[in-house]
Design goal:
This protein has 328 residues and is an alpha/beta fold. The chain folds into two domains: 233 residues, TIM Barrel (Alpha-Beta Barrel), CATH 3.20.20; 79 residues, Non-ribosomal Peptide Synthetase Peptidyl Carrier Protein, Chain A. It contains 14 helices and eight strands. The protein binds flavin mononucleotide.
Length: 328
């Protein structure tokens, strides 16, 4: 099974929907503040809105007070969450300052009390997302996993980097393997899966049945389909001709179609004005590594309205097709 990771600013309903269409089995919202939720903040509720066609989307909560987290989980469950995930891995200062996210890796007692309170409050599944520890010196993911299992959570996701690493270096998949050995509940492996080969290698090293993908899906949502196709081929199923040509100019051409689809879904979700600015950061990921894309990136970053975005994307597609014909 494949999951789309929670990514603040990116795991929006339109992007989740595209990833579901491309084969993701479940997904997470962007992280939602438990405090904000119980205060009834409109913006906070916005993060929990689900789009038609979402298969199984969990709401990810961050916070440090067991009672607040439990109440927020109850509200999320009432508002359509398929499951609750607790964020014990976020390294961002704004979250750490309020003792949320990865700072709970330094207080496993409190982490356990939060998890127990949430598990007790909701009937839907509860998962937790952790890192390898605060620093290499105080690596404690196995202890954290055991605390969470003891509290009754259904699965643990590990992004095997230390908080102090942020996103630098490579994630250490051995930690995922070790956590799987130590726990009886499901362990979801995460970190640096950007192509089919990474997925196969992570599965080989860890034995995970569920893998979570974050950055690898940004601007490349068809990665889910690629992996699903490779699994089907492994099982002897004929998956037909590949829709997207691996890494080649065929992939580049279909990027313009994905960008337009993502944009139109965002328009239908947020309205034209918001879609134009919201999509800028997503467009950057789609255009990463596309030859000659600089001019289009600049135009998209300054496009004033939705029709302008559409026309830029149309000419991007024409240009890519032209180039593809020349090469073919
Ligand atoms: C832009 C961005 C935003 C993220 N936001 C969250 C978040 O809200 N909650 C969370 O638990 N992890 C968050 N993460 C971490 C990812 O969920 C994931 O654990 C991490 O990126 C490693 O996986 P990857 O190598 O597949 O990207 C974020 C990562 C990125 C790049």
């Amino acid at each position: 099974m494949l999951a789309l990771a929670p990514m603040a600013g990116y795991s929006t309903a339109p992007f989740r929907r595209i990833c579901y269409d491309e084969g993701a089995d479940f997904a997470y919202t962007e992280m939602v503040s438990a405090d904000g939720l119980i205060r009834g903040g409109e913006k906070t509720f916005e993060y929990m809105r689900m789009m038609e066609g979402e298969r199984f989307t969990g709401v990810q909560l961050f916070g440090s007070d067991p009672a607040v987290m439990a109440e927020a989980a109850r509200i999320a469950a009432q508002n359509g969450a398929a499951f609750i995930d607790m964020n014990f891995g976020c390294p961002v200062k704004k979250v750490i300052r309020r003792n949320g996210g990865a700072s709970l890796m330094r207080d496993l007692d409190l982490m356990g009390r939060i998890a127990a309170a949430v598990v007790e409050t909701v009937e839907i599944p509860v998962t937790a997302k952790i890192r390898s520890g605060w620093t290499a010196k105080d690596e404690n993911y196995v202890e954290a996993g055991l605390v969470l299992e003891g509290a009754g959570v259904d699965a643990v996701v590990i992004h095997p980097r230390y908080r102090t690493q942020g996103f630098s270096g490579r994630s250490n998949w051995e930690h995922i393997a070790r956590l799987r050995e130590a726990l009886t509940i499901e362990v979801i492996g995460n970190g640096d899966v950007t192509d089919v080969e990474d997925f196969i290698e992570l599965r080989r090293v860890t034995g995970c049945r569920i893998v979570m993908i974050g950055r690898g899906a940004l601007g490349r949502p068809w990665l889910f389909r690629r992996i699903k196709d490779s699994l089907a081929i492994e099982a002897g199923v004929d998956v037909g001709p590949e829709v997207v040509v691996e890494g080649g100019i065929g992939e580049t051409v279909s990027i313009a179609d994905f960008m337009l689809r993502h944009f139109e879904l965002t328009v239908s979700w947020d309205g034209e004005r918001r879609a134009v600015s919201e999509m800028r950061k997503q467009f950057k990921w789609y255009l990463r590594g596309v030859p000659g894309a600089k001019e289009y990136r600049l135009k998209l970053m300054s496009a004033a309205d939705a029709d302008m975005v559409r026309s830029i994307l149309r000419s991007l597609k024409e240009e890519l097709v032209k180039r593809w014909r020349k090469l073919a």
